[in-house]
Amino acid sequence: MSKRILVVEDQEDNRQILQDLLTSADFEVIEAVDGEAGVAAAAAQRPDLILMDIQLPGIDGYEATRRIKAKPALRRIPLIVVTSYALSGDDAKAFAAGADAYVSKPFSPRALLAKVREYPPS
Hints:
With 122 residues, the protein is α/β, with parallel strands linked by helices.
């Protein structure tokens, strides 16, 4: 059974890049286009892993991460922040919100897949 990955990303091009990369590696991809939809999809779909952008319409990725990690049923789902919002200290903010890992854009496809593979399906 392949790992189900929730991609929370508002930019269609970035979603497509992640979709293509992950499906080519035999992962199942669920998409959400904003923070609220990401929190709802995490609760409804219970993915094995979440890739979270930070700059999102409505609630940002930090707040969406906090909301997901605040729910006992979702707390153990690994969450990787994948963002171009990579200023000094942004990784610390992501970890403080509950992220398990941080990857800045542009990312190496090989490195991102290696990071995703560090978290086995639940």
